Amino acid sequence: MQFNSNDSGSSLQSEINITPLVDVVLVLLIIFMVVVPLLLEGYDVDIPRASADTSEQLAESQLILSIGSAACPILGPPAGEGIPKDCQVTLADQKIPAAELPARVAEILGGRPAGQRALFLAVDDRLNYEGVVRIIDLAKSGVEDLKIEFIATN
Amino acid sequence: MRLGEGAKLQASINITPLVDVVLVLLIIFMVMAPQMRKGPDVNLPNTTKPNSQGDERGRILVSIDEAGGLWINDQLVAAEHFGEALQAAVGAEPDPRVVIRGDAKLKFFQVREAMLAIEQAGFRGVGLISRRAGAEGK
After folding, report:
1. Measured between CB atoms, does B55 come within 8 Å of chain A?
2. Is residue B23 part of a domain?
């Protein structure tokens, strides 16, 4: 009888304490339930209306970035990260390697007040979409609150 | 003595069934999570620093698949009915925002045409959805 009571005391100790496990699992469950409507990430862009007068007002100071298929031949999805080294873009009538974009955009638009930083994109239709998005990514990394607008190429 | 011990052992709640249920729920959510997304599977472009575009809820998702097919949320729509379908998708939404999920293999003009159609339907801007490089998921 005395041994039995000792045994029952040690058997209470021998049970694994699963309360922390339950805590962790419950937290994981809540995380998954919250993350299910997954968040979206991307870039805001504008398409000026054909008859937009706002863009004409800005015409003098507008900064145009042209991406041509001859100077920047991204015709298929670019491999790896970033964009090919041979890609050249035309920023404000100057041909520059795409890698210099963040610095040049910051130089030109960095001094303007936050609401007036706009970059107008003229993109060749034949270019690969991923390449274009990566160039937008590059341009946006130079300054904060950069507005991107697309303009017709032809 | 025995009766007392027996009552003591019974006093702790048996949480094993609770753990079982929670684990099963966890597994169900893990399996369902990738399938709960709206729209078709699209291989999004990879970029380094995309900005937050908010939650999928409250956004109208325009997806363009590898073949150039246009989807509004979960429905494939013909290009000529795109405008009407978009208006229908807006419904009573107070502040609708449109985002484009374009496949990385597309040519730019396919996305530009979708943007123009969205603009003609009365939206000022769109969000181009990308995937943060190195992140998993679709």
Report:
1. yes
2. yes
Provide the β-strand partners of residue A62: none
Residues of A within 8 A of B110 (CB-CB) are 129
Tell me if A125 and B23 make a contact (CB, 8 A cut-off). Answer: no
Contact B29 A127 (CB under 8 A): no
Helix B2-11 to helix A2-14 angle, to the nearest 10 degrees?
10
Partners of A44 on chain B (C-beta within 8 Å) are: 51, 53, 125-127
C-alpha to C-alpha distance for B64 and B45, rounded to whole angstroms: 12
Helix axes B82-90, B108-120, angle to 10 degrees: 60
pLDDT digits (tens, 9 = 90+) for A10-40: 455 677 788 888 888 888 888 877 766 667 7
Scanning B58-107, the segments in alpha helix (DSSP H) are 82-90
Q: Position A93: which residue type? A: D
A46: in domain: no
Same domain, residue pair B50 and B116: yes
Q: Is the pTM of this model over 0.95?
A: no
Q: Taking CB atoms and an 8 Å cutoff, what residues of chain B touch A150?
A: 112, 115
CA distance A1 to chain B (A): 9
The count of other CB atoms within 10 Å of the CB of residue A86 is 11
Nearest CA in chain B to A74: B107
Domain count, chain A: 2
CA distance B131 to chain A (A): 7
Are B7 and B59 part of one and the same domain?
Answer: no
Assess if residue B51 is contained within a domain.
yes
